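Two folds, back to back.
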Amino acid sequence: VKEAGRDFTYFIVVLVGIGVTGGLFYVIFKELFSSSSPNKIYGDALEKCRSHPEIIGALGDSIKGYGEATRRGRRQHVSHIEYVKDGLKHMRLKFYIEGTESGKQGTVHVEVKENLETGRYEVRYIFVDVDTYPRRTIVIEDNR
């Protein structure tokens, strides 16, 4: 009886471990590979910025993107907000880009809206505020 109780306890511990591991894999998969994750939208918007000729002309080649700075100085968190408007899910993102031109950077603003038919997010707009004098805004995509 004592040994059966110990075996049952080990069995419960193994089941909890499998459950936690499965949950972690689900969260990682959803965050990295889902079309509705902020990281995926950030990556797609950054690629559009990297290939836009006006952005390349203003900031230079090899454009890097980064998010808000954390307490430890890391700039990996992409600022985003999710909201519902007229029954559709929307998401706004803000991140920063810089190129090889010294001291020039830009702030990228992205908004996406859920398509009810496909269930995927579609871009409403992507524009970049370039921090040069005079300030200017470069519109990459506008589907409003």
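---
second:
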Amino acid sequence: AAGKVPRRRPPRSDMGRALTLLLLPLALLAAPVRSEGGTAAEEEVQIEVLHLPEACSPKSKKGDLLNAHYDGFLASDGSKFYCSRTQNEGHPKWFVLGVGQVIKGLDIAMMNMCPGEKRKVTIPPSLAYGQQGYAQGKIPPNATLIFEIELYAVNKGPRSVEAFNQIDKDNDKKLSELEISQYLKEEFARDGKKRHPSAHDEILADIFKKNDHDGDGFISAKEYNVYQHDEL
């Protein structure tokens, strides 16, 4: 649904799991239906700030890893179709902003938002589930959606300079199979999930298939930085 978080610092294991999944890259919260076109007037997200903390830093931007809770309502009758607090044992949701892991309207609505901020946003059908709707999520065709959002954390995303440098052990500004292999082993050890022995090799091959665009056996800073979040 529109979701792919009480105020506390997330455990390192949670961060490791998020970074691993996002590096692959796999969408944590991918919207199952893309928005459909509309007129210019329909392409606008309405944002109402309900609470703004005195300390508003850092502000969210494309490529950041966000942690948030939110409720979703149908504008037509006010009925609730989604509540993140009843999902995943009540844990807030992690997702990368601005890369299509949530519906386009949420990507727009959560830009320039700071930790602790609360917003009420109205999203037109063209920036949500369009003419098709989303039956599984109980969202009818051409539905305008309202979300009440509370943002808990804004972190550097997995495609940031810091993440790249963490993997690039020899500081040569490119990632080798050995470096990424070691990174995967470390992250898998942190999250503690059981995996088939072949999973490591399959994931490693998939990473290079999707990111090594020039086929030279390395992932360059430019190839890695698909979100255009920082300059490497």
